[in-house]
Write a structure and sequence with these properties.
This protein is mainly β. The protein has a single domain (39-197), classed as Porin (Beta Barrel), CATH 2.40.160.20. The chain is 7% helix and 63% strand.
Amino acid sequence: MDPQPGCFDPILLSSRSSALLWLLFAWFPAAQAAPNDGIVGSYLRAEFGSSSFGLPQASTTWASDDRGRAGKLFYGYRFDERWGVELGYGKLGSFRLGVSRNGIAGSSPARGRASNGFAVATGRLPLGNTWATLVRGGLSSGRVRGDGVAGSKTSPTLGIGVEYRPRPSLVMTLNYDNYGELADELKARSLVFGLHFTL
């Protein structure tokens, strides 16, 4: 059965991603001097939104379904209020892309689903007591399954975002990530929103 455009599966961690997450839990000590304030120490978060797909080559995309539903689950540890690391896994949804060269459309579009794992260093720049700018940089390991385009590839990833903290126990985030090429014939980006609570 062909993937349905925009279909989103529940996020499932691969065995490799799960093992790396457990290593991070073992590696970084939990903050015991004070309750977790959501800024310094460890956190586990999920964010959801949309993804967009494209072709790296200098070509024209003619199929209209280049967007999917995105979600990511990630573990992070912040050493202080500015610097930290994150490790996670994301589902980027489904796509349907065709290529037109010299004004002639290809015989059939490429279609499939994409996912990725990522490991990044993070930076946080506080802008007063409630706002902060977020930046990320590291590696993304993508995987694509489908017809016409498939495979896996590791690429640099860069991201930027904003954090709003109306009170210490509540954080809202909006993040944009460019994952580079997930496979030799496909690149992806995502825009995701998160609502996080600190217990």
